[in-house]
Amino acid sequence: MKNLLLRTLTGILYVALITGSILLNQYTFLFLFSVAVFLCLQEFYRLINVYKKIKINVGYNSIGGVLLFVATYLYTSGTFSFAVVVVYLFYLAVLLISSLYIKHSDTVAYLAYTFLGQCYVALPFSLLNLLVFPNHSPEGVYYHSFLLSLFVFIWVNDTGAYAVGMLFGKHRLFPRISPKKSWEGFFGGLILTVASAFVFARFNTGISFYHWINISFFVVLFGTWGDLIESLLKRTLGIKDSGNALPGHGGFLDRFDSMLLAVYGALLYVQLIQN
Known about the structure:
Helix content is 74%, strand content 3%. The chain is an all-alpha fold. The chain has 2 domains: 26-141, no CATH class; 144-275, no CATH class. Strand 1 (172-174) and strand 2 form a beta hairpin.
């Protein structure tokens, strides 16, 4: 009972922070998600260092991911030209050059895992900026609806998939990687998420409910793949959770795993309806 209460309180705080940072203004979004990038990368690189025995500079490369997120924000918001990305390119150059002077038992593995963290964590977070500063908005106008829908659809899908899976789950979705997930849970979460899309259509009349339904479908599909990918990584590393920073929920990667791939699905569709 105590664990359930702790898990519930942590979940409420997490949802409140994410929702509040998105709805308040673009600067709270910038701050909170910069912190999220940093914490997720710290967790990822520490896991690699422990389980793969690779001495990745956790602090430096976590800051590198934040640079990519902030540079993307500054460009998409119209604050700076694309030249701001040079800051991140400088980080990459230093990373490669430093491998010449730091002794590693396996330099290829060191660079591969370091770049994997940037691609797996920093890049998806950075793409969130394209959702809050979409092409159809005037330059610099902060538009939170797409980003908020991304997280709400993920949360609704997770809740629906868990509840339906617990009650009716019999057919395993991907037993090799995640034996608890079921097809019944997948479709239960999908149906509930599509239903929630009508709420966004009700309060965002500028975009057809048809488009919201399609976005919800892509978020569920890609989000499920994102969840499975993190499960595969954890199974490969031989761990249950990515960390214990969030009581009852595991680590930061455990909370953002679906988003890390769902953003691709949402962004692809948003770009499609804008062009």
